Amino acid sequence: MLSVDMENKENGSVGVKNSVENGRPPDPADWAVMDVVNYFRTAGFEEQASAFQEQEIDGKSLLLMTRNDVLTGLQLKLGPALKIYEYHVKPLQSKHLKNNSS
């Protein structure tokens, strides 16, 4: 059984808590392409998730993405692209840096 803790945000975005129960490693750097795709599908970006698969974005690539990469490189509509970067990519990057700095 998949355990996903979802919380609606004011802007309509959905936050997803990562854990071993949802089938992905806890550290995004260890995610395969399908882990990234499934993360965004679970977060409510079903249509946009395929762009990550088409561009072969795995966890390491996801953590290296800039705002410009998300807004232009994935060829997504601006609204969803902004939400994906601000509410998902950026927090994942910050969490990863925090967890891996001594």
UniProtKB/TrEMBL annotation:
Pfam families membership: SAM_1
Domain called SAM: residue spans: 31-79
Gene Ontology biological-process annotations: negative regulation of DNA-templated transcription
Region described as Disordered: spans on this chain: 1-27
GO molecular function annotation: chromatin binding; histone binding
CC annotations in GO: nucleus
Composition bias type Basic and acidic residues, residue spans: 1-10
PANTHER family reported in the protein's UniProt record: ATHERIN-RELATED, POLYCOMB GROUP PROTEIN
Protein name: Sterile alpha motif domain containing 13
Organism encoding this protein: Phyllostomus discolor (pale spear-nosed bat)
